[in-house]
Amino acid sequence: AHIELGQLSGDDCRRWSNSMFTNNLRKLTAGQGNRNALADLKGRLIAVADVYLATAEPDRYVVVLEGSSFAWLFERLDRYIIMDDVELEPLAQHRVLSVQGPNADAVVSAAGLPLPEQALAELDGVYVLRRDRTGLGGLDLLVPVERLEALWTALREAGAAAAGIEALEVLRVQAGKP
Predict the structure, then answer these.
(1) CB of 100 within 8 A of CB of 171?
(2) Which residues have C-beta within 8 Å of that of residue 109, sequence separation ≥ 6?
(3) Per-residue model confidence as pLDDT tens digits over 93-140
(4) pTM
(5) In the chain, which ranges are E strands?
(6) In this predicted model, what pLDDT tens digit does every residue of 27-42 receive, in sequence order?
(7) Pick from 122, 133, 125: nearest CA to 165
(8) Distance between the two ends of the chain, CA-based, in angstroms?
(9) Engineered SS bond to 4: which of 55, 60, 70, 136, CB 3.0-4.6 Å?
């Protein structure tokens, strides 16, 4: 699955973003998130994105796009930023590590990362997202490239094992997850 990461920020971000996505973003509290669709004027689905309100800044969203690029999203949304204080930018220096399975919380915690109380936790540039991709529980970690190897080592030492995208896809389909 193609996953890209980005963020929306600025003083008008909450109001503006609420009118661009299908789910209510204004009601999110710090650390909460929801799945959103981007539709055209006729209501046709253009993209799906998970949007999380950052824990440290009240006017910043972390956006996880699956199956489309942040450049594509930026091209479509940028035309609607006219007099608004809103910035869209990719998190190009982050990668996704997905820790799935019934022991995901214990493994991530043992690797020294915080567990989200709701949907998102942040620590030193690493975002920990509640994201069950298999029906067995799980977390996605958005990790700066320079910390990727060290975190992968810590996860393995805590009991994680590489499974590969094919295994993840089989478990996703077996769980009936879209």
Answers:
(1) yes
(2) 115
(3) 999 999 999 999 999 999 999 999 999 999 998 999 999 999 999 999
(4) 0.87
(5) 3-9, 33-39, 45-53, 60-66, 87-90, 94-100, 120-123, 126-130, 138-144
(6) 999 999 999 987 777 8
(7) 133
(8) 12
(9) 70
